[in-house]
Amino acid sequence: MSSSQSGTRVVVTTHKEDGTSVFHSDNMVEPFSPFGPSGSSFAVFDARATVPVNNQEEPKDFQKTLPRVPQTGVTFCITNMAPRHSAPMHRTLSIDYAVVLSGEIILELDGGEEKTLKAGDFLVQQGVNHMWHNRTDQVCKIAFVMVGAEKIKLATGEELEETVFKK
């Protein structure tokens, strides 16, 4: 099984009624491949509708869902970008904190600028219109924490909308 198709172990903690800390679950989260077996895959580990979150809320199952952040919430996920694959230009209404876990990825902005990010590199992405390119022969695994954000407002008053791709 390729690394883009293998599951990710996720351990979740919680509390007993008396306040004692305990493990809630220890499961493998299988990747979701909405673009077919040779395309990129995703795994959403947790998403909350609002921040601050309610740490007593029962964790939900996000199997087979694309990473989307609630407008006032937060999402924790990974993307496995397939070799020789690109994601279309898109903008999310979020601030995204990312770390490249393995491989290499090129981040292209709508102005044409590109930066190469490698394993161990971190990214703070502030709602920009962007594309991802994996120009290598290896899967690139990226972890994201996406936090809902306000729309970008230009000096003209125009607001930049979300432009997400669909499965």
Structural features, described:
The structure is a single chain. By secondary structure, the chain is mainly beta. The chain has strands spanning 8-15, 21-29, 41-48, 74-81, 85-90, 94-102, 104-109, 114-118, 122-126, 130-134, 140-148, 152-153, 159-160. The strands form 4 sheets. The protein has a 5-stranded antiparallel beta sheet with strand order 3-4-11-6-9, with no helix packed on it. A 4-stranded antiparallel beta sheet has the order 5-10-7-8, with no helix packed on it. Strands 1-2 form a two-stranded antiparallel ribbon. The two termini are 23 Å apart. The mean pLDDT is 91.
Brief overview:
The protein has 167 residues and is mostly beta strands.
Descriptive keywords:
single chain, 167 residues, mainly beta, four-stranded antiparallel sheet, 49% strand
Give the topology, please.
Elements lengths: L7 E8 L5 E9 L11 E8 L25 E8 L3 E6 L3 E9 L1 E6 L4 E5 L3 E5 L3 E5 L5 E9 L3 E2 L5 E2 L7
Antiparallel strand pairs: 1-2, 3-4, 4-11, 5-10, 6-9, 6-11, 7-8, 7-10, 12-13
